[in-house]
Design a protein that fits this description.
Blueprint: E1 2-4, E2 12-21, H1 25-34, E3 41-44, H2 53-56, E4 61-65, E5 88-89, H3 119-125, H4 136-143, E6 155-162, H5 168-171, H6 173-178, E7 182-186, E8 189-195, E9 202-208, E10 214-224, H7 230-237, E11 267-271, H8 279-282, E12 285-287, E13 290-298, H9 300-306, E14 311-322, H10 337-344, E15 364-375, E16 384-391, E17 397-403, H11 407-426, E18 430-434, E19 479-481, H12 496-511
Parallel strand pairs: 1-7, 2-3, 2-10, 3-7, 4-17, 10-19
Antiparallel strand pairs: 5-6, 6-13, 8-9, 9-10, 11-15, 11-18, 12-13, 14-15, 16-17
Length: about 525
């Protein structure tokens, strides 16, 4: 059932078997999984059923380092940031889980094989089932087009599958509203996670509405699923017994914040004839009611050999260029028509097909392709979430985010852009010109993908992580964390379907433990 916490009696005490903080993708998924378990579930959600400015303002904060839109990157209402999710789904690669000697602080305590059994359920939740993310034969057969053999060995073909996208607050609202053992408290802002004097277990959660109503929730087990920025904030704010904050004895809560850096205008790519690229390589195709597109990803052997971070690229058709489009070229330019067009291409980031291009046009010099890239970032302990001195409407200290990128991140981006250019040239498809200055500096304008990862990282060693392999906070018997904040490394895949697989794995663990 859905309950407006503003209508509760002041100082109410609610009891449950499982309390979940946050009704986003992870929180809703865990609640759904327990709906028919016979256990009482209480979900605390800060927002209502729609966004409102006063609640959204609770996300405001301060930043150091790279400029970051703290409030604009998240949605604070039932369904969470699935409300502005783009629907991109791709699995983390097996190498992303490995401890790589060239990637500081890398290595998950689990391998990809431990998540593989859960990707089907995750695919169903985001409406892209069945999962075909790495099935080359399936897409070759269903599209009727060949797949490219990247002979130089730098790039291999994987696939994005695109969720509609699934808005969890809309799609699963009625299911939770009708679940007799699930109570979703709306407008319920967690202000403190209280622990017993030994700090070995959580005793209750304190919450408050913006109207001033206060109440507590007491449960046997608790799951913090408030996102990669709010999860560490809540732990740091809960400092009445442990002064450094819960789970923070090693000063790791909030550290290792990771995002996928996005830059625009980093390269210009021209293909002499777009038909040389099978359709799924340059646009989304609709197959069996689901949309998919190729993700150009580095071969793991290439990553190991060159000691690089992971990355993924997508392409889309931009516009046609003709051999008369020569303004601004150097007078001694002697390239062929495709190269001339490449040098003329506008420095912009394009993703959508700009309309039909007539391949029989005798003046056609080539087709400019839009190209996008997401690159893995090194886990950096100095990239972190801390508490600011300023406070929000509830009197709680706001976030101070210090997002940092390293030279290793930048070098991987540059190298991968060059690599994909060489692969496309070797395959006779097109030419690419790097537009990202290789000067040791990141561009002045870098944005993220709204992917908040790493701030409560997973490790079996409590001196290296906040949670263990089962997502339980080290040293606290009944407190767990769900979501991408537990990722030790980011990979280059969008986090949603991967955090969902982790959530289903956590459900299995919780169901296997005494309630």
């Amino acid at each position: 059932m859905l309950i407006d916490a503003r209508e509760l009696e002041d100082d109410s005490l609610l009891e449950a078997d499982l309390a979940i903080v946050g009704a986003g993708v992870a929180g809703i998924t865990i609640a759904r999984a327990f709906a028919n378990s016979g256990q009482r579930v209480c979900v605390l959600e800060s927002g209502g059923l729609a966004t409102d400015a006063e609640t959204q303002a609770l996300y405001q904060g301060e930043h150091a380092g790279i400029d970051y839109p703290l409030a604009g990157s998240r949605l604070r209402y039932f369904g969470g940031s699935s409300g502005h999710w783009g629907g991109y789904c791709r699995l983390l690669d097996p190498i992303d889980f490995e401890a790589r000697d060239w990637v500081p602080h890398s290595g998950w305590p689990i391998g990809r094989e431990e998540l593989d059994p859960y990707y089907q359920a995750a695919s169903e939740a985001v409406q892209v089932s069945p999962a075909r993310f790495e099935d080359l034969d399936y897409w070759r057969e269903r599209t009727g087009e060949p797949l490219i053999d990247f002979r130089a060995g730098r790039i291999h073909t994987r696939f994005f599958q695109f969720s509609p996208p699934t808005r969890f607050g809309e799609v699963y609202r009625d299911e939770l509203a009708k679940a007799p053992t699930v109570s979703v408290l709306l407008h319920a802002n967690v202000t403190n996670i209280a622990v017993v004097p030994s700090a070995k277990s959580v005793s209750q959660i304190s919450a408050q509405t913006l109207t001033g109503r206060r109440f507590q929730v007491r449960a046997r087990r608790y799951v913090l699923a408030a996102g990669g920025l709010e999860n560490p904030r809540i732990l740091l704010l809960s400092n009445d017994v442990v002064p450094a904050g819960l789970g923070n004895e090693q000063d790791l809560v909030g550290r290792f914040f990771m995002e996928h850096p996005h830059v625009s205008g980093f390269a210009e790519l021209v293909v002499a004839d777009k038909r040389r690229l099978p359709t799924i390589y340059r646009s989304r195709v609709l197959i069996d009611g689901r949309r998919a597109q190729v993700a150009y990803t580095p071969d793991p052997a290439f990553l190991r050999r060159e000691r690089l971070l992971n990355a993924s690229f997508t392409m889309g058709v931009g516009k046609a260029y003709h051999d008369t489009d020569r303004s601004g070229l150097a007078p001694d330019a002697g390239q062929d028509r495709a190269n001339l067009a490449m040098l003329q291409a506008a420095r912009c980031f394009l993703t959508d097909d700009a309309g039909p291009i007539d391949p029989s046009d005798p003046g056609l010099a080539g087709v400019q392709m839009g190209i996008g890239c997401a690159c893995e970032a090194v886990p950096n302990p100095d990239s972190r979430v801390q508490l600011a001195d300023s406070t929000d409407a509830l009197g709680l200290r706001r976030i101070r985010l210090d997002w940092r990128l390293t030279e290793q991140d930048r070098r991987s981006v540059v190298t991968h852009i060059r690599s994909i250019g060489r692969e496309l040239a070797a395959a006779g498809i097109g030419r690419l010109q790097l537009k990202l200055a290789d000067d040791g500096q990141w561009p002045t304008r870098v944005r993220g993908g709204n992917h908040h990862m790493g701030t409560t990282r997973m490790s079996d060693d409590p001196t290296r992580g906040v949670v263990d392999r089962n997502c339980r906070v080290h040293g606290i018997d009944n407190l767990y964390i769900a979501g991408s904040s537990v990722f030790p490394t980011s990979g280059s895949a969008n986090p949603t379907i991967n955090l969902l697989a982790l959530a289903y794995r956590l459900v299995d663990h919780l169901k296997g433990q005494p309630a």
